[in-house]
Amino acid sequence: MLPKLLTKIPGPRSRTLARKLRRYESRNITFISKHWPVFWERATGANVWDADDNRYLDLTAAFGVASVGHGNPQVVAALRQQAGRLIHAMGDVHPNELKLKLARELVALTFRRNARVIFANTGTEAVEAALKTAAIHTGRPGVIAFTGAYHGLAYGALAATERNHFRQPFEKQLGNFVTHHRYGEIPGQPPKNYGAVLVEPIQGRAGIVVPPDNFLPGLRRYCDRHGLVLIFDEIYTGFCRTGRWFASEHWKVTPDLICIGKGMAGGFPLAACVGRAPVMDSWPASDGEAIHTSTFLGNPLGCAAALAAIGEMKRQKLAKRAAQLGAYIQAHLPVRGKGLMLGLPVANPARLCEQLLQRGILALPEGDVLGLTPPLTITRRQLDFAIANIIELCR
Ligand SMILES: Cc1ncc(COP(=O)(O)O)c(C=O)c1O
After folding, report:
1. What's the whole-model pTM score?
2. For residue 7, what pLDDT band results from cuts at 50, 70 and 90?
3. Protein residue with its CA nearest to atom 3 in ligand 1
4. CA–CA separation, 339 and 378 (whole Å)
5. Which end of the chain is more exposed for a tag (fewer CB within 10 A), N or C?
6. Tens digits of residue pLDDT in 211-266
7. In 150-300, where do the E strands start and end?
């Protein structure tokens, strides 16, 4: 079903809620203007309803998370069932069996075998785990990252994130262990104290940037030559988003560590760093107090949701679907990207997003493009509606 055409967005209830939120939430968080935001009330598939009961078509999958569709019935059922049994266990002390099941599944999906998992709650934390793993493995603190990189905003990940907008207020508190090289180009000789390369196989928040074909294979050779750990941040690109299970498959490159999150658990906050055993096993065995863990590590609800979401990706062949629907969009719009991780270069992406919202379409700017990262379950008909509106607004 297509959204009805809407008038007066945000509606009165969204506006009231925004006004109230302003009083209680830190002012830097939710952007509030005359035209923004709408408060989400419920969602299913690629449709979202707001607090005024307006229906929208979601081209964001809510930051690329709702890959298996909002409110995926299998994910909902798994969460319901698990919530009735056990919501929280003792992640690194007395865990729940689902942590084992999901770790086994993640190893099978990424490295197939002989790999280990560190669970995390957010993508940022998965990056932190990868940075620490590389440091433990090589004993060398230096990390090469790239221009435009977005790896998260905690101090470790922020040191690797390149955008000044996020870094500038904290610049003096950031470690100086990361240097940034131009994305798409192989760096020169690394200094002796460098141990890792951290890279997004396709950059997301920099504006959906696909690197030249020789970049990732070249980085693999570079890391092998200099004894560096190659870390792929597949938090955005992973789990079928780009038309493959992982974007690295487009270039047939295997990293040493892979960071995953976002779409992995159907909307539940869960992430992980998965790594080749020879690298991961540089961590010493736990002596009863883990060096790196957290309260909610391997949360049973998250693991149940992820197992269900991954099951849906397999059952619905969502990697293939993303590739097909991506090709369909590419045939109609001059977008860049792969699968359903696409960006349409436009003069003013923020303005276009506001206009689309008025037409019942949720979209976000990613750098200098209009991001097109819908649920991978979006229908052709829904896409046609989105494409027609985008074309009309861009005319
Ligand atoms: C490539 C990439 N890495 C890391 C992150 C951070 O993930 P989170 O916001 O879950 O901490 C993001 C989030 O957008 C991302 O796109």
Report:
1. 0.97
2. low
3. 151
4. 13
5. C
6. 999 999 999 999 999 999 999 999 999 999 999 999 999 999 999 999 999 999 99
7. 178-181, 194-199, 229-233, 257-260, 271-276
Is residue 123 within 8 Å of residue 271, measured between CB atoms? yes
- Contact of 68 with 75, CB cutoff 8 Å: yes
Question: Whole-angstrom Cα distance, residue 311 to residue 113?
Answer: 19
Domains and CATH numbers, the chain: 12-68+318-394 (3.90.1150.10), 73-315 (3.40.640.10)
> Which atom, in ligand 1's list, is nearest to the CA of 157?
4
- Nearest residue by C-alpha to atom 4 in ligand 1: 151
The answer, yes or no, to whether any atom of ligand 1 lies below 6 A from the CB of 200, is: yes
Q: Residue 4: its pLDDT value, please? A: 53
Give the ligand 1 atom nearest the CA of 200. Answer: 1
**127 C-alpha to center of ligand 1: Å?**
9
Which of 119, 151, 237, 366 has most ligand 1 atoms within 8 Å of CB, for mutation?
A: 151
Tell how far the Cα of 236 is from the centroid of ligand 1, in angstroms. Answer: 7
Instruction: Give residue 1's pLDDT.
Output: 47
Query: Is 125's pLDDT higher than 90?
Result: yes
Ligand 1 neighbour 261 (Cβ under 6 A): yes
Residue with tokens 């009165």: 12
Q: How far apart are CA 184 and CA 76, in angstroms?
A: 40
Contact residues for 112 (Cβ-Cβ < 8 A; gap 6+):
none
Tokens of 27: 């002012």
Residue 215 CB coordination number (10 Å): 19
Q: How far is the CA of 151 from the centre of ligand 1 (A)?
A: 5
302: pLDDT strictly greater than 90 = yes
Residue that has been written with the tokens 């493995």 in this structure: 137
Rounded-to-integer distance, Cα 367 and Cα 335, Å: 14
Residue 160, pLDDT above cutoff 70: yes
> Is the CB–ligand 1 distance for residue 236 below 6 Å?
yes
